[in-house]
Every structure is written in structure tokens, then in C-alpha cells.
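Margin note from the TA: students keep mixing up input and output lines. Inputs are the sequences; the output is the structure of the whole complex. Example:
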Amino acid sequence: PNVKLVTSDNEEFVVDFRIAKMSVTVSRLMEAMNMSETDDASLLSNSIPLPNVTKAVMARVIEWCEKHKNDEPKEEKENDKRGRTTHVVSDWDKEFLKNDEFGRLCQLMGAANYLEIKGLFNDISQTIANMIHGKKSDEIAEMFNIHCDLTEAEKKEIRKKTAWCED
Amino acid sequence: EIAMDGLPDELVENILCKLEEGQDKLSAALTCRRFLAAIHSKLPRATSICVQFAGREGECRASVKARDVTAVLTVCQCESHGCTSMLSTVLPLMSKDVSSLSLEDELIGERLSDSAAHALLDGCSGAPLSCLSFEHVDFSAVRPWTLALIASFDRLEEVHLLSCVLPEGLLLRALAASLPTLRSLSVTDSSHASDKLCSTLARGAPCLEEISLRGCHNVSAASLVALLEGAQRRRAQLLTIRMEDTSFCSEQLERCMRSSLMPSGREWAVTRMRCELGYATPALLLTHPGGKAILVYD
């Protein structure tokens, strides 16, 4: 059975019920609208509006979901001993996100967050974190086009309190 | 165009919390106020302090270095350099969140002065220490009441005295406060350690999981007898004990276990094994039907 999803720019995507269920948000909306897998009429007569997602972003989200639809539901190993929430990005996912420029990644992350697709959300979050890894603060600011609003005195204070990281 | 500015704060926080290394977290915190707010509580603080005594008269250099979460303080004991007073000033400021303290003496043949020991132990007395470790430290010039400061740490889980000179009686008194939490104890290459150490541990340390007495010549099979008899008081199923280069002898232990003076001795089953610890080491596995076991490397 198929489900119709409508994006903010009025594009209709017809996806498999299983794909639609991968989004917690869509899943909840379908429940609220009494749409069920066994009731074709309910699926045909309704479409799910997604006002926070554009056509271009939705296409990418669906591509990711298609690849991951058969994944075992896995427990994210959140909070290891030191309370880290590191996530391992699979090779396919790395390749998938490789060519997105930063603005697109942010849009995709926003969509994954709104749609509540945890795997995709963590992939993007970890990918951006990996971009930060090994860079100095001015390089990070340049990469993300951030204007630094900290004073030199404040920076010195932060450095003093965390002196253990720098040589 | 949505970019970093368009991401809600909780998403920025989610990204920054995935940074693992201290250096990355610091760089991110220095980028802008928003990043700082997101990662502020995750910035690494020193959780361990390592004090090294190094450098002979005339060639000593004091330094403070950082290794990951460890602050390494290198100092000398020369009267003229005032390193002792530096320790007593710096340590109380640094040690608030420190869980591990280690002292390494790289000067072979020199004794730790009482004032340096006092500065070190008193300076860390407010720290929530769970691990205390000394290497090559000769405590023979340190006064008993200075060593008693160790007893102010009352939740130590790991204590290591590697090649140190410290009388057993003083060690036991210093450890008394932490016996209920002690999980791992090493006392190596010490002529002071005797079987009294294990008999105290057998009675008073319910969390014990590891002991190393390598190179302590005055330790014998009697240590194992005490630990076997105290086995039911310990919470962990397995206790590992390293007895290489001691007077421990497995034949003597088995004689004790069969003797009528040790009624519970016959309840234990003995298995001889060889364990790979870099090289094949003979080992003795003692198991009790009650579920407890002791693994001895000799």
C-alpha cells in the first residue's frame, strides 16, 4: 500500500507505507487520521501535509529511507561511560551525504528532526561533528560562516579553565 | 538559505555533543557565544593529576603539562626552588574535581621529603579521589602523621604502590578508611609487605577484585589461606591475585588446604593452568561450589 505525502511547495510524493512509517511524525499523523495499512480507502482518500519540508529535501529523505527500510531497529548506544553520544556513520551514508554542501546538510537535518527519523538525524549530526574535528576555532567559524562574538578576554578565560587540551 | 544560523539551538547542541576530543570541544567553544553555550558543560576539566619529582640539584625544571584529562606537574625537591610551596598553592585550586592522583619519583635513591609529601597530600585533601598511585617513592623520611592524611580519602577504589618504600603498618592505617570501597590494590617489590596485608583485606575489603603483590618476598601461601577463608565476604565472583616473585608456593597452599586447621580448605577445587600474559604464566584457579573463585598467578 502507498501513502501520499505533500511538501511545502505542493509536491506530492507517493511512498510505500513502510517508508512512511519510518518517520515518527508521519506515523503519528496517520494514526490521528485513522489511516491503516489494511484500509486502502483510508490511504487513497488522505494525503499527509508536511509544511516544513521542501520538495528537494523530501526527495533526499526518501532516498535515505529506501536504503534503510530493511534495517534492524537498532538501539543507539547513547551515553557510554563518559556520557558521549557518538554515532557511527556507515559507508553508504557517508557517500550519500558527501556531496551535500553545508546549507543542504542543515536543511536535511532540520527535516530529519521534524520528521523524527532518528538514524538519518544522527548521521547528519555526526557528519557535521566530523567536519569540526581537528579544526581550530577560526577555521570552524570560516567553514560555517559564523561571526565570532567572543572577546579576547573571554577566550582567554575559557582557555584558562580548560588548559588541559592545548599544549 | 538555511545554514548554521538557521539551525535551532538543540540541533547545534546535538552536533557539538558528538565531538569526542577535548581539543575539538575547546575549538568549538571558542568559535562563538552560541557554540560556547551549547558545549560549555562538556568542556573537559582535569580529572587526574600526576606529580613527578625529577631533576637533580642545578638541572631541575618545574613544568605543568597537559596530557588529555591529566595535568602533569613536574617539580624538584630542592630547598631553594620552593616547589613544595608551589604544590601547596596550586594543588588545592586544581584538585577540586580530580579523581586520580599519582606521584612518580624519577630520582633513584632520593627520599620524598616530609614537607613535599605534606604539600601533596594536604593539597589534594578536598579531592574526590578514587585512584591513588605511587611509583618509586621512598616514604621513609615522611612522618606517620603526614601519611595519615591518606586516610582522609575515604572512597579509594584503586591504590597502587609500585616499588615504593612504605612500612606495612602505616599502609594499612592509611588504607583503613577506604577498605569498604577498595577494588584493586598493588603493592609491588616491597620488602615491607607481609601476609598481614591480605589477612586485613580478606576481613575488611568486600569489593576487592584485584591484588598484585609481585616481587614481595615476605608474602607466602598464608595470604591465600586468608583470602580463601574470607571469600564469602566478597561481592565479586572472581578475585585475581598476582604472586610472581614472592615466597608463595602452591604445594604449601595445598598442604594448608588439606590440614585440619583449615576446615573450609577441602571445599575448594584446585585447577592448574597456564595463562597468556604476554608470556605463558603458570596459574592456579581455585573454585568454590558457592560460586566464588580465586585466580592466582605464580
